[in-house]
Structures are given as C-alpha cells and as structure tokens.
Design brief:
Helix content is about 75%, strand content about 0%. The chain is mainly α. It folds into 3 domains: about 110 residues, Serine Threonine Protein Phosphatase 5, Tetratricopeptide repeat (Alpha Horseshoe); about 55 residues, no CATH class; about 55 residues, Alpha Horseshoe (Serine Threonine Protein Phosphatase 5, Tetratricopeptide repeat).
Amino acid sequence: MKTGMPYLIVLMFLPLLIIAQEVESQYIEWTGDDEIANALVGAGIDCAMNIEFEKAYTFFDAAVQKDPTLFAPHKFLANFSKGEKKAYHKEQANKLVEGKNEVSKLYVSLLDIKWKDNEENARKQRDETWAKMHELAFDGRFVHFRYAQTLEDDKAKLAEFEKLISKLEASDRNTGHVHNLLGYLHYGLENKAEAKAHFEKYVELRPNGYNAYDSMAEFYKNEGDVENAIKYYKKAVMHYPMAQNAKDELEALKKKVEEAEAQE
C-alpha cells in the first residue's frame, strides 16, 4: 500500500491537472523577433484603444516596415484603410496569421465579416467572435476590453469595465481608455457627475494623449458649455495637430460663436 500511494495521489489529481491545462488563457500573438517592431505595435495598440487612430496608423505602418512578418499591424491597417490598400492589408493579415493560435485567427477573421450585406447579421457575427475570443483569452486585457464593448446591456458593460479596471490596476496597467468608455456610458445613462469624473480621470491618466481632451471637450459641448469645449478641443489639437475630429469640432464651435456674436 505504501508504494502504491504516490500513484494513487497522482491519479486523484490528474483530472485537475488536465482541466488546468485546458483552461489556460490564450493571447493574441502580437509580436515577433524584432524588438523595435514589437514596441511600435504596442504603441499602436495603445493609441487604437484610446481612439487615437491617426497616431495609431503611423505606428502600425512603421511596424510592418520594420517587421513584415507581423499579422497584427496589417489587421489594424486593414481596419483603417479603404480600397486596394485595405484589400492588401487584409490579404497579408490572413496569410501571416497562419500557424498562430485560435484567438489570433479569430481576431483576423473579423476582417471577413461583410457589413454591407446585412448589418444586423454582421454585428451578430462580430459579437459572437469576440465572445469566443473572450472564452479562450479570458485573461487578455485587449480582448476583455473589446468584448465588453460588444455587450448590448449597459449595466453588463459597466460591470465588465469595472472588472477590467480591477484587472489592469492589479498589474499596474493604465486604465485611461476604460475610464473614457465609462464616461460615455454614464453620460448615456444620465449619470452626468459620474461621466465627468471619469473623463477627468482620463485626462489625469493620459495627459500627453489627445483623445482624453477630445472626450472632455465633447462632454462640455453636450452640456452647452462652449467655452470649455473650445478650451479642451484646443488642447487636443495642441497635443496632436493631426487630430481630425478635434480640428473639425473646434472649427464648427468657433463658427458658432462668431455667428452668435454677429447677431448681438
């Protein structure tokens, strides 16, 4: 009996070991062997999650020039592009994701969804894909963030974003992009004080970006506070002169002020 006990213990715990292996979280395989290209991809993802698409494009474009074997920047560039350029980046993303894990393949498969044919069906496909990715990459921060955005119920979204903030804070990661979406969610629910607090936190956490100022400006614009809206749109443009939305909004608000003054 004594000699058989270790084997018995192993047999008892074997199912648990198998389950532990089965539920190991996957991650999108963003990176390759080139450290500079990897850093460019990381910077691009950060900008993309913060809705700084103009800046994200430049990082992803630089990444594929530095390391042509990466599928992820091609996927993003396909999202940001049109026509032949979009088709090229989609083709490259599909080719380069071969041999990667299932989460990576699912991520690239989002490019195959045909939005023009049936938007409702396309949205369902997208949501199901992100849900499947979240099952496989339940510990992935990017996947969690994007999955939470697909949830239809606002309370469910709030709950997921709060969970994500806890996860990010536990690993000393920036939570600014989550505060941004929480700001918009609370504003939509008429929780304006909470919305403003989240936008202010976003500005605090991302002082050198430009979308935080854009979001704060939009809050003031929606509240009818044109002076503060102009102030924050100016800050957005100051931090990134190519911030197109801020430039357009700033021009429109200045025109509105001029028209109002002319009528006085």
